[in-house]
Write a structure and sequence with these properties.
heterodimer; A: D-amino Acid Aminotransferase, Chain A, domain 1; seven-stranded mixed beta sheet; 19 helices; B: alpha/beta; six-stranded mixed beta sheet; globular
């Protein structure tokens, strides 16, 4: 546990990728063999079943620290993280222990099914044997939510460096299903479990946003242009008679989309395709807000199937006749893909994402202006000679998105952030004008520099009108330009509409509150998108 | 008639007709310590403890009308007995004790209860009314003994030396800097920023036993600095100058470093929870030791701390003041300097 605690501290005290990778490499070179697979599982978000509910943990911590519940709540609010709050408010531990990370994890797992009394006894024993830092880690083990700024890619790069193994192989190996209690670190690196399971997806190839002019990319004949669809990126795997649908979050979502299950019969074995899960009605791609009704549901009813029917727009072919063809050029993969799609009998559900024909960049720029008409977010540019890379790689694939919508709003509420931003007012609520009133349209917390956050923070402290728990009502004075990707009707919001992906584009210090947009402006925009 | 009232200029003693740590100009400012949120320019007269005087002269001007009083000695102002007791916050920091017709009131300014090796140790003073800060008035703030924290800092410095990194400790010029100097002094040379060097000179002249340090100047070679320990105020921590150093590693020394969010906010390479303010147990023990019948809570987690005191049976009220912006104030001083 100490070695792992040290790793977490190292990862947290540096914001440089190279330092973090060095810390991970050192960890995987020196840590307990049995601990390593558990750490990989944790960092890639494989959560064990939560053995003790948060409410109980919180209750026991409050009891033990002999503070009233409201004071615990205030402390939590200031810290911004429950595991850390508990670690800090508890009385100092009276003992120490050398128990290993995987032993703690297994002991926690063994609590499932035990009585609350037995659970409490174990948790209190742990708190009394761990120092503040270790306790924080232990509490995170209970919740399973370990977010410490290590991306899958960073972890893979570190393991790849430590074991001198190809990073694609590592990425492939650690994605998906394996049990840290049943596999060794060396087996995981070797990927010995990978071929035994039919479901293994490939890491998605991702694109960077195109900031420069497209003309800087060179000749148009080297590039393939497609619409950038606004849905859920997905990968469909068909092997040995089984069909699996993976989302980009490395989640198996096969059951959520029954409309696509026919592909089990219609795709040949040993085929993996990459595409976009969309809502498609009468051959038209629907807005993301329609698709949203189908996401993250355990059961799907008839009306949802009717209102938001699913389609899959296919981008790429990764595995053909059981062979990994990701290192074949896009032009070859596309032509093989066309053959595969030609073999699909059911019409209109799984279709090729169309290639946009264009002869010069000016023409493509013009076509791009019409992106919103077919509910796409812009254009994807892929080099015809490109491999299907693992993750993001600069140069071969670009997303050339249309500019977001924007609206000028005034800040009316502020709340303290959590995590890194706890103790500063960083979460803001914005309003537009509706006659004499201000009406809330968006909440956003990103897009300002640390310096600007400090400035807003001090404005909030000086101009707070009312206090509702953590929320401050502030004088409507600061004008912000909010960028967003879409707009939808919403019964839950007072404004009757909701913005998608709202974020602060600019702090408009040049504008005053009288100059902000009105609710009517937004209603007109909404009407134009339906 | 209460001995003190809270006005829009500061804490006022009507009977004595003077203010304690006023934020607007008045005739007489009784000053607890030299941090910029507790003492302003423009008062007609100042009264402070002897070791606070060099700070005021340094920061507000050498012709400042300052009168001093040693700890535990009493003077009378319009019949009110005024005396200073050590607050343990920074060198010269004082609690102001007022007594009039048997009623005793103590205004503590900023304080900490742990002895830091350089500031005169905090001394609890029995009183009827106590004015307390609440900077770290939440139960998440419990400091480790300073020897443990200095152990961490020394290990960090020695790791930096091994890795050819330059150790830069970020600390307030008044207080934290002298505490670091006193506790880290040894074979490794300590280099300090101008604002710290100036204060140190004043302290040494006033007789404070402060170890020797070297003022950072452009002439000092980067590899010499790399072998030493650098101490700079917060405003310099993000500047261009840091980039010019040889592989600078920054270690922020502040109570806010107790919490991960605080450490990440400063984007420091290391954070050490070393504070010149009392922690949660420190605040409670100090307040209980005063046996005060009424506690006024100022700057910090004011409402939370005051609510808690009331719940444990110590009558308390919240007070709005202008104290508690040490960060901003330090930056202003540097801009002016």
């Amino acid at each position: 546990m100490r070695r792992f605690t040290q790793l977490i501290q190292q990862l947290e005290t540096s914001n440089k990728t190279n330092d973090k990778i060095a810390a991970l490499v050192s960890y995987f070179s020196t840590a307990d063999e049995k601990d390593k697979p558990y750490v990989i599982a944790m960092f890639t978000g494989k959560k064990p079943k939560r053995p003790v509910p948060t409410a109980l943990i919180r209750q026991w911590a409050t009891e033990l620290s002999e503070i009233p519940a409201w004071l615990f709540a205030e402390s939590y609010h200031s810290v911004g993280d429950l595991s850390e709050t508990i670690a800090l408010v508890l009385p100092p531990a009276r003992h120490t222990t050398d128990r290993k990370l995987h032993e703690w994890i297994n002991d926690l797992a063994a609590l499932n099914g035990k009585s609350d009394e037995q659970k409490k006894e174990f948790i209190l024993y742990a708190w009394d044997n761990l120092d503040t830092q270790e306790r924080f880690i232990f509490n995170k083990l209970i919740s399973g939510n370990f977010r410490i700024g290590v991306s899958n890619k960073m972890l893979v790069n570190a393991i790849s460096k430590q074991s001198d193994t190809d990073s694609n192989k590592i990425m492939h190996s650690i994605m998906g299903k394996w049990n840290p209690g049943e596999i060794t670190y060396d087996e995981l690196i070797a990927g010995s479990h990978v071929n035994t399971d039919n479901s293994w997806p490939y890491p998605f190839c991702l694109a960077y946003a195109l900031e420069a002019e497209p003309a800087s990319l060179g000749g148009t004949d080297e590039w393939q242009a497609e619409w950038k669809w606004d849905g859920i990126r997905g990968q469909i795997v068909k092997r040995n008679g089984e069909l699996f649908i993976w989302s980009r979050g490395e989640e198996l979502v096969t059951d959520q989309f029954p409309e696509l299950h026919f592909l089990r019969e219609e795709l040949p074995d040993g085929t993996v395709i990459d595409g976009e899960i969309l809502s498609v009605k009468d051959g038209q791609v629907q807005a993301f807000s329609i698709l949203q009704q189908r996401l993250n549901r355990k059961t799907i009813n008839k009306s949802q199937l009717n209102d938001a029917p699913i389609g899959f727009y296919i981008y790429d072919l990764l595995e053909f006749e059981t062979k990994d063809i990701r290192t074949a050029p896009l032009s070859e993969r596309r032509s093989l893909l066309e053959d595969i799609v030609a073999g699909i009998i059911t019409p209109g559900v799984a279709i090729l994402s169309p290639v946009i024909q264009f002869s010069n960049w000016e023409q493509l720029a013009e076509i791009r202006q019409g992106s919103r008409d077919n509910n796409s977010e812009g254009i994807m540019l892929k080099k015809l000679s490109s491999f299907y890379h693992s993750g993001r790689k600069r140069g071969d694939w670009w997303k050339w998105k249309i500019n977001p919508y924007t609206v000028d709003t005034v800040m009316i509420y502020a709340q303290k952030g959590s995590g890194r931003r706890a103790n500063h007012f960083t979460d803001y609520t914005f309003a537009v004008r509706d006659g004499e009133n201000l009406i809330t349209v968006a909440k956003a917390y990103s897009g300002l520099t640390d310096k600007e956050i400090k400035e807003v923070d001090s404005f909030v402290k000086k101009n707070a009108i009312e206090k509702f728990g953590p929320v401050r009502t502030v004088k409507p004075e600061l004008v912000f330009e909010i960028a967003f990707e879409g707009i939808a009707e919403s019964k839950r919001h007072k404004a009757g509409l909701a913005l998608r992906f709202p974020r602060i584009a600019r702090w408009r210090k040049d504008k005053v509150a009288a100059e902000i947009n009105t609710l009517d402006d937004l209603r007109q925009l909404l009407a134009s998108t339906l | 008639m209460a001995l003190i009232t809270f006005t829009n200029k500061g804490i006022y003693c009507k009977q004595g007709d003077f203010y304690i740590d006023p934020w607007r100009p008045v005739n007489l400012a009784v000053t607890t310590h030299g941090h910029a949120d507790h003492v302003k320019w423009g008062n007609k007269g100042y009264l402070c403890q002897e070791l606070t005087k060099p700070v005021l002269l340094q920061r507000l001007g050498f012709d400042l009308p300052v009168q001093t009083l040693p700890y535990n000695e009493e003077i009378s102002i319009n019949g009110v007995k005024v005396s200073f007791f050590p607050a343990g916050h920074v060198i010269g920091s004082s609690q102001v004790r007022l007594e009039y017709k048997g009623e005793i009131c103590v205004v503590s300014g900023d304080y900490k209860v742990e002895y830091d090796g350089i500031s005169t140790e905090f001394e609890p003073v029995k009183c009827h009314t106590f004015v307390s800060e609440s900077t770290f008035g939440l139960p998440i703030y419990k400091w480790l003994p300073q020897e443990t924290v200095f152990g961490q800092i020394r290990n960090w410095i020695s790791d930096n030396h091994d890795q050819m990194k330059t150790s830069v400790l970020v600390a307030y010029s008044l207080g934290k800097a002298q505490r670091l100097i006193k506790n880290l002094a040894g074979d490794t040379p300590i280099y300090v920023h101008n604002s710290i060097a100036n204060l140190n000179e004043g302290f040494i002249k006033a007789g404070v036993d402060l170890p020797e340090t070297i003022r950072i100047t452009p002439e000092i070679k980067k590899d010499e600095l790399q072998k030493g320990i650098l101490i700079v105020p917060p405003a310099l921590a993000d500047g261009k100058w840091m980039k010019s150093l040889h592989q600078a590693a920054t270690g922020v020394c502040s109570g806010w470093m107790q919490v991960r969010a605080g450490r990440r906010w400063r984007a420091a390479d290391a954070g050490f929870a070393l504070s010149d303010h009392a922690d949660w147990p420190g605040l409670l023990s100090a307040i209980k030791a005063t046996e005060a019948e009424k506690v006024f809570v100022t700057h910090g987690f004011v409402s939370t701390f005051s609510k808690y005191l009331n719940e444990i049976g110590i009558p308390s009220a919240e007070v709005v003041t202008r104290y508690g912006n040490e960060d901003d104030e330090e930056e202003e001083i540097l801009k002016e300097a």
